[in-house]
C-alpha cells in the first residue's frame, strides 16, 4: 500500500512541476498497482477463510 500511495503522490508532484504526461502515468500506474494488490489480498483472505473452515478427519486424514 505504501508503494501505491508513493507513486500517486509522486505523480501529483510531477504534474505540479510541469510534467503532466509523466505525472498522469505515475498516478494511473499507482492506482492500477493498488487495484492489483487489493484483489490479491481479497483472494488470499478468501483462501484463508476456506482453509480455516475445513476440518481434517483423524481416522482417514481426509479434509472436508
Please describe the topology of this protein.
Blueprint: H1 2-16, H2 20-53
Helix pairs in contact: 1-2
Please provide a written account of the structure:
The protein has helices spanning 2-16, 20-53. The chain has 64 residues and is mainly α. Helix 1 (2-16) runs antiparallel to helix 2 (20-53). The chain is rod-shaped and about 70 Å long.
Beta-strand residue fraction: under 5%
Task: Tell me the number of helical segments per DSSP (H or I, 4 or more residues long).
Answer: 2
Overall 3D form = rod-shaped
How many β-strand stretches? 0
Mean pLDDT: 84
What characterizes the major β-sheet?
none
Task: Measure the end-to-end span.
Answer: 35 Å
Class by alpha and beta content:
mainly alpha
Low-confidence stretches: none
What percent of the residues sit in helical stretches (DSSP H or I)?
Answer: over 70%
The value of Rg in angstroms is 21 Å
Order of helices and strands: HH
Question: Would you summarize the structure shown here?
Answer:
By secondary structure, the protein is mainly alpha-helical. It is 77% helix and 0% strand.
Observed structural traits:
77% helix; mainly alpha; 64 residues; single chain; 2 helices
